[in-house]
């Protein structure tokens, strides 16, 4: 099929490339001219494992093209996926301005019937808004074309987005017309998904499913983070508890890791948007409120631990702290709402000297944090550890698990390691000579 993907970011580019990979003809469109110019040369400016190779392959085979030209792109396609951002507004609600602008440009370029598929995460009820907005725009410019709107939220995870897109567990589709269901089957069948795993429902439920999934996963994380604090008080070990409850098939083992809090471009904003939508509907959400509040506290935890560690030793001011990991999770360069940023800003405010390193997110880190007074962007974790009074590990890159910790310790001035992702064994770290602080794990002093 001929497909247009509007918005060529983490979701749109992966979607476009994967649809091209299974044999559809794909045009990816973005308003960012520099991005499209690079993509036309096969250069992907985000870090996502496998994406660069697959982009080049499909660009060369002719299945995939990139453009900024709505008119040209719209002429060639029958189905348009919308993958533009839906960031938070000040009141937490989703900002639909990017969506509205994309619809306006699309309407101006329209030359006949189209199927519009919304992949962006949008609040329940937005498909109706899209129908009205597009219809009003078409009326205002005197175009009488028909269209259909389908909700098809995206569930890919950054860091394994190609795998997720090529092997979907299920496809959620808000659509009630039989003829369109056939089109959806034709779009997704090449991925080998069973027809039964394409779940059709009404538009509002489809949109809500996306928020429900993210809210559920975030709830599990905040739940474990809350328990980890209690574990520290009571002397229990959150890692043992994770394994203990995760092996119960009713609970399952995923998203039960205590840590320095969740971040990224989805969980925080989607919880805010769902809370805002509920508030707008005069409905109370004490659980969602608590998930967000717990996470806000959790993101401050490592800074608090560092503060109390240095309290009796002249304070944080002037201390050198190495920060390992900036991205909000491993295998991505995405630093949107990353817990590392909260930590870095807090330590900087307290007068620390910062040495930061991330295996993939250094460019984003430099553009976001470059103006800070006392920050050094390091070449690797060894460089970051040089002269450090303490290390804070915030992103659980596998990379850090194979680091030579003896060499790290020899480069440090102090010996404290604050592990925001419980990556190391408490016993072993103490034996090596680290003053090791994990989350929800009793401290061992040898
Ligand atoms: N990133 C994820 O892991 C993920 C996962 C599932 C769902 N989502 C949702 O998908 C949507 C997109 O997220 P993302 O992370 O890919 O965002 P992104 O910021 O990486 O990419 C969005 C792209 O849209 C482009 N754009 C903005 N306005 C445009 C317009 N009028 N016309 C054409 N292009 C336009 C931007 O230039 C940008 O390249 C959001 O709603 C997000 O919540 C994201």
Describe the structure.
With 446 residues, the chain is α/β, with parallel strands linked by helices. It has 3 domains: 2-201, 3-Layer(aba) Sandwich (Rossmann fold), CATH 3.40.50.720; 210-296, N-(1-d-carboxylethyl)-l-norvaline Dehydrogenase, domain 2 (Orthogonal Bundle); 299-437, NAD(P)-binding Rossmann-like Domain (Rossmann fold), CATH 3.40.50.720. The protein is built from 19 helices and 14 strands. It has helices at 10-21, 33-40, 51-61, 70-75, 97-109, 126-140, 161-166, 178-188, 203-234, 238-246, 267-280, 286-298, 301-311, 339-349, 362-369, 381-385, 398-401, 405-411, 426-432, and strands at residues 2-6, 25-29, 64-67, 79-82, 114-118, 147-151, 171-174, 198-201, 320-324, 353-357, 375-377, 390-393, 416-419, 435-437. The strands form 3 sheets. The chain has a 6-stranded parallel β-sheet, sandwiched between helices. A 6-stranded parallel β-sheet has the order 11-10-9-12-13-14. The N and C termini lie far apart (65 Å). The mean pLDDT is 97. The site of nicotinamide-adenine-dinucleotide (NAD) has 27 residues, from helix 1 and helix 5. InterPro entries: 6-PGluconate_DH-like_C_sf, NAD(P)-bd_dom_sf, UDP-Glc/GDP-Man, UDP-Glc/GDP-Man_DH_C, UDP-Glc/GDP-Man_DH_C_sf, UDP-Glc/GDP-Man_DH_dimer, UDP-Glc/GDP-Man_DH_N, UDPglc_DH_bac. It comes from Aerophobetes bacterium. It is an enzyme of class 1 (oxidoreductase). One of its GO terms (biological process) is UDP-glucuronate biosynthetic process.
